Amino acid sequence: MNLLPADLEKIAALTLEHYNLRAEDFREGTRDHDVSQNIAALLRHINGTAPFAILDVGCGPGRDLRTFSKLGHIAIGVEGAVRFVEMARADSGCEVWHQDFLHLDLPDSRFDGIFANAALFHIPSQELPRVLKQFHATLKPGGVLFSSNPRGNNDEGWNHGRYGSYHDLAAWQGFMAAAGFVELEHYYRPAGLPREQQPWLASVWRKPV
């Protein structure tokens, strides 16, 4: 698939508008989601002494920003949907940058960890290598990236008003390795269910020192 710049802008605009129009419902619907397994997977692999600088990518209404802050870490969000940016700033008290995946402007070697929970699947596959290299650059040497995405058969397209790319494990490993990351672990969620009932692929990666 070869998406032109105008196609990419349309994908970003319509997907973000989908979230903006449903921001309150999304916040209520995800407020009590238990992602403690994912947060723990990121934090246990970060070397050094806390507090850690954490970038919450696609932070949404700020639920996980609050959690990282309560744990004593310095959390910053980055989010493309303006309604979520407003919510996250108000609810978490954290700094939140209004940037979408097509127009990231991230500082070099700033963060100990990146938390990308249910976010990176919105990046069209052709743009994913560039975005992952930007995440690689904004991590400190030895920094850690966590991601969780709905898994699939390496297909992409529109799904109920949102654009998504659905990779299997081998494809995701290929993207991450090409961007310079080394795998630390992966698992499927929700835990304790048969694989066919585990739609989420979670993985943890390190930027080499």
Q: Give the overall average pLDDT.
A: 96
Distance between the termini: 35 Å
Rg is 16 Å
Strand and helix order = HHHEHEHEEHEEEHEE
Strand order of the largest sheet: 3-2-1-4-5-9-8
Number of strands: 9
Q: What class, by secondary structure content?
A: alpha/beta
Shape: globular
Percentage of β-strand residues: 25-35%
- Biggest β-sheet, characterized? 7 strands, mixed
Low-confidence stretches: none
Q: What count of helical segments does DSSP give?
A: 7
Helical residues, percent: 25-40%
Characterise the protein shown here:
The structure is a single chain. With 209 residues, the chain is α/β, with parallel strands linked by helices. It is 35% helix and 28% strand. It contains seven helices and nine strands. The strands form two sheets. The chain has a seven-stranded mixed β-sheet, with helices on both faces. The longest helix has 17 residues. It is globular and about 45 Å long. The mean pLDDT is 96.
Features:
7 helices, 209 residues, 35% helix, globular, two-stranded antiparallel sheet, 9 strands, alpha/beta, 7-stranded mixed β-sheet
Short description:
Helices cover 35% and strands 28% of the residues. The protein is α/β, with parallel strands linked by helices. The model has no long low-confidence stretch (mean pLDDT 96).
Per-chain topology:
Blueprint: H1 5-21, H2 23-30, H3 36-43, E1 53-57, H4 63-70, E2 74-79, H5 82-92, E3 95-98, E4 111-117, H6 128-138, E5 139-150, E6 155-159, E7 162-166, H7 169-178, E8 182-189, E9 200-206
Parallel strand pairs: 1-2, 1-4, 2-3, 4-5
Antiparallel strand pairs: 5-9, 6-7, 8-9
